[in-house]
Write a structure and sequence with these properties.
Elements: H1 9-15, E1 19-21, H2 30-34, E2 40-44, H3 50-58, E3 63-68, H4 71-81, E4 91-95, E5 110-116, H5 134-143, E6 144-154, H6 157-167, E7 173-178, H7 195-202, E8 208-213
Parallel strand pairs: 1-4, 2-3, 2-5, 3-4, 5-6
Antiparallel strand pairs: 6-8, 7-8
Length: 215
């Protein structure tokens, strides 16, 4: 995907009250920042924020954090949330690379992680960069509560099968999986679609989903 540079995006993010930059770690401070001890759910690679913003609107009893690597993308999410009235008090954003996630969150601080349509990194030599690799699953384990869950969606069957193969070697437990989410009566109810999901579903591409837990 070709990203268009947005002049001043990083400065806008740095000045925004709902945003945190990677170089300003907040490990162990998120309940204080939200002003509540509600569960914390994060989306890694949130894109323009449609999915996590919808979740935050539907579930005020949960605190949500959207993580995005690219300033030019995150700033678009800020534009969307700025139009929501009243403002969402349970939503924050971080501009950071997921490789450094353990500096931003403390052990047992996260209840749920969402990964939606992550970069497949198709070349074998880049497998460690995939957000569902054993290397990343170990990072998530360090910040997640033992009873927490990770939900992953993709239209890329090769990436999905790779992800399933990572679960057991990483010491995680597979709770549920499907290669056709939108026609799965058990897993589809309550599903919120991302921008990519809507696009791929319109093309007739089946959506895959797995739910896993570190215990």
């Amino acid at each position: 995907m070709r990203l268009r540079n947005v002049p001043g995006a990083r400065e806008t993010i740095a000045a925004h009250p709902l945003c945190t930059l990677e170089e300003d770690p907040k490990a162990g401070k998120w309940h204080e920042l939200f002003g509540s001890d509600r569960p914390v759910h994060i989306e890694i690679g949130m894109g323009k924020g449609q999915f996590i913003t919808a979740l935050a609107s539907l579930h005020p009893e949960i605190n949500y954090i959207g993580i995005e690597k690219y300033s030019s993308v995150l700033v678009r999410a800020l534009e969307k949330t700025g139009s929501i009235k009243p403002p969402l008090s349970n939503l924050r954003f971080i501009r950071m690379d997921a490789e450094n996630i353990c500096t931003m969150f403390a052990p047992n601080e996260i209840d749920r992680i969402y990964l939606n349509f992550s970069d497949p990194w198709p070349k074998d030599r880049h497998a460690k960069r995939r957000l569902t690799s054993q290397q990343f699953l170990e990072r998530y384990r360090q910040i997640m509560k033992p009873a927490g869950q990770l939900e992953f969606k993709t239209d890329n069957k090769d990436l999905f099968r790779f992800s399933l193969e990572q679960v057991e070697p990483a010491g995680w437990h597979l709770i549920a999986a499907t290669e056709d989410l939108h026609h799965d009566d058990a897993m589809n109810p309550g599903n919120i679609m991302t921008e990519y999901e809507q696009r791929f579903a319109a093309l007739g591409n089946p959506i895959c989903k797995m739910v896993i837990s570190p215990t």
